[in-house]
Amino acid sequence: MPSPMRCCVLNDCWVTDMSETSQNEVRMWLLEMLGKSIRLSAQLRSLLEAERDAMEAQDTEALHETLEAKRVCVDELKVLEESRIACCERAGFKYSPKQMDEVCSWCDKNSLVSNSWAELLDIIASCQKLNDTIAAIIHARRSQISKGLAVLCGSNTNPGTYGPNGSDVSGTSQRDLAEA
Question: How confident is residue 123, by pLDDT bands cut at 50, 70 and 90?
Answer without folding.
Answer: very high
